Amino acid sequence: MKAGKDKVISLHYTLTVDGEKVESSLDGNEPLWVLLGHGQLIPGLEKALEEREAGESFQVEVPPAEAYGERQEGQTQRVPKKYFQQANKLKPGMATTLALKQGGHRVVVVQKVGMTTVDVDLNHPMAGKALTFDVTVNEVREGTEEEIQHGHAHPPGGAAH
Fold first, then answer.
1. CA angle at residue 42 from 11 to 82, to 5 degrees?
2. Which long-range contacts (CB under 8 A, 24 or more apart) does 144-153 make?
3. Residue 54, helix vs strand vs coil
4. Nearest residue to 72 via CA among 123, 37, 29
5. Which of 69, 71, 72, 102 has minimal Cβ neighbours within 10 Å of its Cβ?
6. Residue 57 pLDDT > 60, yes or no?
7. pLDDT tens-digit profile of 67-78?
8. Closest CA to 119 of 156, 79, 157, 81
C-alpha cells in the first residue's frame, strides 16, 4: 500500500542540519506514527512520504520554505516572564516554549533575560535552515474513521480518546 492522504504511516527518521544530527526516532527506539494529510509534519517531509511503501528507505533535503520558513528580521518581542514555564532557568540562545494568550504554544529563542521580562526571537529555531531527513517507512495502513476524525494516528497500544 502506498502512503497518501488519510493513510497512517510508521517511520523512523534521523534529522540533520548542516551535517549535524539534531534528533532521531532511533534514539528512543519508538517509531513516529503519522496520519498523512492532516498537518502533523512539515510540508516538505510530508510531500516526500507520499507514494512511499513499507520497507522503503530514503533521504530528503527539505528547503526552508517547505520546513519552518525563512528567517524574518525584526521578530524580537519582549514578553513577561509569567508566560514561560521555567522562567528562572532561561539563558540567551536557548530554545524554549512560550505559552500564547490565545492558547497553544510557540517555540522561540531567548535573546536576553531581564528581571521581569524576556526578549525572544519569534522565528522558529530551525527557520532559514535546510533539513535533511534519513527515513525508513516501517508500515503503511488505512487510517481508521476515528483517527481521521481526530486528525492524528493512534499507534498500537496507544490510548484512544
1. 110
2. 147/8, 147/35, 148/6, 148/35, 148/38, 151/35, 151/38, 151/39, 151/40, 152/34, 152/35, 152/38, 152/40, 153/8, 153/9, 153/33, 153/34, 153/35, 153/40
3. coil
4. 123
5. 102
6. yes
7. 999 999 999 999
8. 79
